[in-house]
């Protein structure tokens, strides 16, 4: 199994997720103690996809996060650069109307300017090699006035909770890795979470990519966070 490093070479990251595609959703649930499901429901409410809209769900993996947008009536594109994840998604989401799967790199999205009313990425932004460039690409494909929603791991602002969170990442996840068929993915996810910027720094990166009205809301005491923004056009 290829283990991606924090330089996040696309081929290594894609290969790692190819190898964990069948059990990816289960891995997320184990790693977060089931909180990932609550976070995804928060994403659905916050994005508020509407009938007739076009939504891009980037780093969608198996499409689990994309299905609710399609069910809300939005034409939804689940985009990912892991072909293994996309294959599993096409099989599992067969029959879901208004949902399509597209292979694509976050740094070179295969869509025209202004193609989407809303763009979102959940737990995938920290896996790209250039965060700012990915955010600019998302802005390019969003229409003027279009919405951005980023759901990503973060850092609890409370010092005691932050210590417990770091301890879980450094020691708890490696224990899970020992009984996993894909231990490298646990190590990578722990390392990438520890290295990820906090809420305020991510907000600055989003604003620096040209988005405006940037704001965020903590989930589960700041273990994750939702960042909202608007494309000024």
TrEMBL record:
Gene Ontology BP, a term: menaquinone biosynthetic process
Top-level EC class as recorded in UniProt: transferase
Annotated binding of S-adenosyl-L-methionine, by residue: 62, 80, 105-106, 122
EC number: 2.1.1.163
Classification via NCBIfam families: MenG_MenH_UbiE (TIGR01934), PRK00216.1-2 (NF001241)
Family: Belongs to the class I-like SAM-binding methyltransferase superfamily. MenG/UbiE family.
Protein name (database record): Demethylmenaquinone methyltransferase
Species in which this protein is naturally found: Actinomadura rubrisoli
């Amino acid at each position: 199994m290829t283990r991606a490093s924090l330089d996040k070479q696309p081929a290594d990251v894609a290969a790692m997720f190819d190898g964990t595609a069948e059990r990816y959703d289960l891995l997320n649930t184990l790693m977060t103690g089931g909180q990932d499901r609550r976070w995804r429901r928060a994403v659905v409410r916050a994005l508020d996809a509407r009938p007739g809209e076009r939504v891009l769900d980037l780093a969608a993996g198996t499409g689990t996060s994309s299905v609710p947008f399609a069910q809300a009536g939005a034409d939804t594109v689940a985009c990912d650069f892991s072909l293994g994840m996309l294959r599993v998604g096409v099989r599992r989401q067969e029959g879901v109307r208004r949902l399509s799967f597209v292979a694509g790199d976050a740094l070179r999205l295969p869509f025209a300017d202004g193609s989407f009313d809303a763009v979102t990425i959940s737990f995938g932004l920290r896996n790209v090699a250039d965060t700012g460039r990915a955010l600019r690409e998302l802005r390019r494909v969003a229409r003027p006035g279009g919405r951005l929603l980023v759901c990503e791991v973060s850092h609890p602002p409370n010092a005691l909770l932050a210590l417990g969170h770091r301890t879980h990442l450094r020691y708890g996840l490696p224990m899970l890795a020992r009984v996993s068929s894909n231990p490298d993915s646990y190590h990578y996810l722990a390392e990438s979470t520890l290295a990820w910027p906090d809420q305020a720094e991510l907000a600055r990166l989003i604003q620096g990519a040209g988005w405006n009205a940037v704001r965020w809301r903590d989930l589960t005491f700041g273990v994750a966070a939702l960042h909202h923004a608007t494309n000024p056009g």
